[in-house]
UniProtKB/TrEMBL annotation:
Organism: Stegastes partitus (bicolor damselfish)
Keyword Protease: yes
Domain of life, per lineage: Eukaryota
Keyword set, alphabetical order: Disulfide bond, Hydrolase, Protease, Serine protease, Signal
Pfam families for this protein: Trypsin
CDD domains associated with the record: Tryp_SPc (cd00190)
GO cellular component: a single term: extracellular space
Gene Ontology MF annotations: serine-type endopeptidase activity
The protein's name: Elastase-1-like
Cleavable signal peptide: 1-16
SUPFAM superfamilies reported for this sequence: Trypsin-like serine proteases (SSF50494)
Domain Peptidase S1: 29-269
Alphabetical list of InterPro entries matching this protein: Peptidase_S1_Elastase_sf, Peptidase_S1_PA, Peptidase_S1_PA_chymotrypsin, Peptidase_S1A, Trypsin_dom, TRYPSIN_HIS, TRYPSIN_SER
Length: 278
């Protein structure tokens, strides 16, 4: 599991890393399966160009929250230069041209002012402002969001999606994966044999059955839950256990979107200063 120290470095699913030199196998995402095309239309692939040579690679997921803004995790921000990032919307197979993609440059990065690099302190959320808006080509959609302060009951079924690792051996998927996860309420997730005190009320825990989980590369992506008559993004993938991602009583932990709506709307309205890299 955490072995009490993994937040000191980029371990487990909790960080974006250099691209893996692994082959793509036929195994499924941890406990999940290939998503149907054109289903999770708010899902994006956040990509990074380490050497400024236009060689972008997937590092994290994200969600479209309006035509100009993408929501992701603060820990996915690897550098402060927006030109080193791009966002791909309408993506399905990372290694093929699906004909549905839109490739968008990033103009501005805004990291939550409370983010200090310590995942256990929370505030692991950031917004990317795009240089050009996402347009409706039939393969994208703006994510519905929860109500302010909304929480979900214990056992509520949601879905995690992403291109994260599918097993501990490092198998990476070409096709977007999906997996069902049940919410673990805060009173349970914060118990000592679960995540303890680093599970905050501004987070959502989901999973922990030892079978299904998010993993590295899913960071920043959505936890989508059907509430109020619509699929809504209730969480942003934040952290999980080091080593094997699908460990018992160590659910995937998400930033709780409903706790950050005021800040998000302030950024989207242009009232928040650029504090990328914080």
């Amino acid at each position: 599991m955490m072995w009490l120290v993994p937040f000191l470095a980029c371990i487990g699913l909790i960080c974006a890393e250099e691209p893996f030199n692994y082959s793509v196998y036929n195994e499924r995402v941890i406990g999940g399966h290939d998503a149907k095309p054109n289903t999770w239309r708010w899902q994006v692939s956040m990509q990074y160009d380490s050497y400024n040579d236009n060689s972008f690679y997937h590092i994290c997921g994200g969600s479209i929250i309006d035509a100009f803004h993408i929501m992701t995790a603060a820990h996915c921000i690897m550098g402060t230069d927006p030109s080193q990032y791009r966002v791909v919307v309408g993506e399905y197979n990372l290694y093929e041209d699906d004909g549905s993609e839109q490739f968008k440059r990033v103009e501005r990065i805004v990291v939550h002012p409370g983010w200090n690099g310590d995942l256990g302190k929370g505030n692991d959320i950031a917004l990317l402002k795009l240089a050009d808006p996402v347009y409706d080509n039939g393969y994208v959609a703006i994510a519905e969001l929860p109500y302010p302060g909304e929480t979900l009951p214990h056992g509520y079924n949601c879905t995690i999606t992403g291109w994260g690792l599918m097993d501990y051996e490092g198998s990476v998927p070409a096709i977007l994966q999906e997996a069902p996860l049940d919410v673990v309420e805060h009173s349970v997730c914060s118990q000592g044999d679960w995540w303890g005190s680093i599970a905050l009320e501004t987070m959502v825990c989901a999973g922990g059955d030892g079978v299904i989980s998010g993993c590295q590369g899913d960071s920043g992506g959505p936890l989508s839950c059907y509430t109020g008559g619509a699929w809504r993004v209730h969480g942003v993938v934040s952290y999980g256990p080091s080593g094997m991602c699908n460990q018992y009583k160590k659910p995937t932990v998400f930033t709780r979107v409903s706790s950050f709506l005021d800040w998000m709307y302030s950024v989207m309205d242009g009232h928040e200063e650029d504090n990328s890299g914080k």
